[in-house]
Amino acid sequence: MLLIAAVTLIASATSTHADTAVAFSAGLTHNVNISHAENVVYDKVFTNIGGGYDNNTGIFNVPTSGIYVFQFHTLSRQDKSSWLELYHNAYYIASIYGHTVNDFASGGNSVVLKLTKGDQVYVKAVDKSYGVDTNIYGRQNEIYSTFSGYMIAPVYEEIPVG
């Protein structure tokens, strides 16, 4: 028991906020029409502290185990729909949906997750077979659809000795 406490204390004393800070935020700068279950790739990276977000795949790869907050928002094109889902390692977590006749529709959601280094979190469009074509609005100077996440606390796993 004493050895575990000493290891935890040493890890805490040698770690600084700069060592463990993780945060990313990305947005969509163009219209996207997605008819299959595929990742939304947010191309405009606002911040990527810790280097976890990949703007080529739309996947956040967890660089440090911890407790994370994720937010995702969308704006569907006029007279269109958007149905997006947040996934953690291929497991469904949460959805957003928006549809309005003769107008734009928005949706947003937030979650808090305990994640392990190497886990993946991403936003995926729902397949058209469920009755919805996802049409996301975006422009270089009008970014309404975003995906963001940040770690609120690192998690250090204690390994019992003996």
UniProtKB/TrEMBL annotation:
Cell location: Secreted
Keyword Secreted annotated: yes
GO cellular component: extracellular region
InterPro entries: C1q_dom, Cerebellin_Synaptic_Org, Tumour_necrosis_fac-like_dom
Main location as per UniProt: secreted
UniProt GO MF annotations: carbohydrate binding
Keywords assigned by UniProt, alphabetized: Lectin, Secreted, Signal
Domain (C1q) ranges: 17-158
TM segment ranges: none
Signal peptide range in chain numbering: 1-18
Pfam family, one: C1q
Name of the featured protein: Sialic acid binding lectin 8
Organism: Ruditapes philippinarum (Japanese carpet shell)
